[in-house]
Amino acid sequence: MAQPVIHISEEEAAKDFAKLLVRVRAGAEVVIEQSAQPVAVLKPITARPGRLLSESIALAEAHGSTVTLDEDFAADLEAVINSHREPLNPPAWD
Description:
Helices cover 37% and strands 18% of the residues. The protein has helices spanning 10-15, 17-25, 53-62, 73-82, and strands at 5-9, 29-34, 37-42.
């Protein structure tokens, strides 16, 4: 059963933000409003599944890759992942 959408004023949200987060963790969506105009929406993050290896191989082939999956593939893949750990588009507040 879907959780309801909760509409709340900025002032009410500020009074007990922790309680709102409890509701969000339980699946509710919270719309924070000022003068009945939406200002922000709090909602649970839905986990995005990763791409299957078969999908990755198909994409590589579609882009003309001639990569071979050998015994060193895991080490190569880990090196690529570790070389790109920083966020590509960091938020403005960081």
